[in-house]
Amino acid sequence: MLDFLKQLTDPQSIIQYGGLALLLFVVFAETGLLIGFFLPGDSLIFISGLICVSKPEVLDVNIFVLILLLSLAAILGNIAGYWFGHKVGPPLFHRKDSLIFKKQYLIVTEKFYKDNGGKTLIIGRFLPIIRTFAPILAGVIRVDFKKFMLYNIAGAIAWIGLLASIGYYLGTYEWVQKNVGYIVIGLVIITLIPLISTYLKEKRKKGE
């Protein structure tokens, strides 16, 4: 079980051992299921584009088909998150912390939502944790479903299209192929900066 969990947090292992099916499931899970917040969404999409061009024997799929399928998985994931939040409602804020749920994640997402409105569903796609809890929160606060879907589709296409395309383009360079690990670490750090900033601001406000 531990080995399986390690593979679920390693982008290259996900693609190598699970192929396209596991890749799509992970993107679906990370964009709307409570259990998905720890999954490597950004780096996974980036590496899928890179492997698509550099190792077609591992991921034999056209880049445009890959982007389409990943976008669909991300859209469906957000819909699942929205309806979960819609069904559970405000009591979710009073739910006790567990291994897969931390109330602080929901609070940080709510703060981000107040600052950015519906655009959170687009901007949040590029931010760990936010992209998992944003659609759930949208369901909790009863965002109009048509408006939600507009942001949902736009965010999915922007997120998947940008990261997969960059990975596909950079995957043609040998230096990038040899230093994927460092690039992934840099990507994780960059995407965590806005999240940490929002968390610290909220913490300072509570301390005042």
What descriptive keywords fit this protein?
208 residues; mainly alpha; globular
Uncertain stretches: none
DSSP, total strands: 0
Given helix and strand content, the structural type is mainly alpha
H/E order of the elements? Answer: HHHHHHHHHH
Mean pLDDT: 79
In whole angstroms, how far apart are the ends? 44 Å
Helical percentage: over 70%
Shape: globular
Give the number of helices.
10
Alpha-carbon Rg, integer: 17 Å
- The percent range for strand residues is under 5%
Structure description:
The chain has 208 residues and is mainly alpha-helical. The chain has one domain. It contains 10 helices and no strands. α3 (41-54) packs antiparallel against α10 (180-207). It starts with a helix and ends with a helix. The mean pLDDT is 79.
Quick summary of this structure?
By secondary structure, the protein is mainly alpha-helical. It has ten helices and no strands.
Set out the fold topology.
Elements: H1 2-8, H2 11-30, H3 41-54, H4 63-88, H5 103-116, H6 120-123, H7 130-140, H8 145-170, H9 174-178, H10 180-207
